[in-house]
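SEVERITY: medium
COMPONENT: batch folding queue
REPORTER: lab tech (J.R.)

DESCRIPTION
The queue accepted two submissions in a row. Attaching both inputs and their returned structure tokens so the on-call engineer can compare them side by side.

ATTACHMENT 1
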Amino acid sequence: MTCLHTISKSPASKLLSTCASVLNPGDGILFIEDGVYYCSLAESGRHRSSDIRLFGLKEDAAARGLSVRSAADVELVDYAGFVELCCEYDKIVSWF
């Protein structure tokens, strides 16, 4: 059973390392709200294996004045992509 984890707090919250401790193969992480600050950090991929996909919400990054480019291992998605991800994964866990 795959899970999409959403992280909505900035890297100062250390939620990514907590989330990483429960990741399973095939899971994904979507950075939303202040969580998009992870998208510009090299550490975002440090906590995962290669079979964990990373996403960032493009609109939230733009709202915070962040470049629409992200770290190489983070795929930026729009709101429609967010909805598609919610349908793609079996369950969703929100970290806040």
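ATTACHMENT 2
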Amino acid sequence: MNKKNSIAWPIAICADSDIADKIEAILHINLFLPNNNENSYIEIGVLVSRKEYNNISRNFNINITLPFKIYKTDFIDIKDRLCDGKTINMIFNEETHLDKNKSSFRLKEYDLGNIELCNTTINNDTSITMSVKEQQKNSYFRFRVTNIKDKISDTMLSDTMANPFIKAIKITGISINLDRRFTKQIDNKIKFKEINTFIILDSTTELLEKNKSIKSFRVLEDDLWREYIGYDTDLNMTVYQFKESNLSGGCIESYQLFLKSLHHKSSKFEKYKFLLFVVLVAIASNFIYGLIK
């Protein structure tokens, strides 16, 4: 068994010190973890609203710090993909459910209101800046970081020489405003009224352990979702939603999600290697049989 390090990502999300308590925010996290690590990515969206009762009207910044360097070639501002209206409604809408007062299924829709789609800027380090314009009430930012394959490691459970179907364990950990390295920003950290995390896995992947309850899950069959994700595959993907909100009206100051998943992998290279192994074993067996005959 080949054991490597697993994902453990502390993320800090902060605002200007005089702003953090005067805004409301909703956080979206998408983590795309197909069996092929080459296509993995993390996507973060932040909806920022000025509270009705404060008089802060100036522009301000929100900064997100990731635990690794981000290259411009791996950074995608998702703003332009949301302009069609359908995609942003798809992101904010809740899951399909059965209305007790009706005999048919319907979609519970999120009241989008007047949301301004805003640009996200990557800095020359591990941070990303989101600028909220003056007088702007509802601002939405969303970006994707691709090419995170080097940030993902597997614990291999099978020998690919003797078995072309690989089994691998992934341990995934994400924390928001929790790591001790961010103590200097503790007064500036944004408190969220809601956090939605979506983990997207191959349907053959088994979710073994988790530290939070699954709110919903479904097979990703919608063409719009497939187009948005941008992963060209004939395989079905399963989306697991983890939702956290403070029912008492308070805010979420920190957040942590832990997952353990079992991935079943297979590739042409591994199959050819296995066939070669079988052929070599057969040749060796025939040779030994000929010697002792």
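NOTES FROM REPORTER
Residues 9-265 form a domain with the Immunoglobulin-like fold (CATH 2.60.40).
No errors were logged for either attachment.
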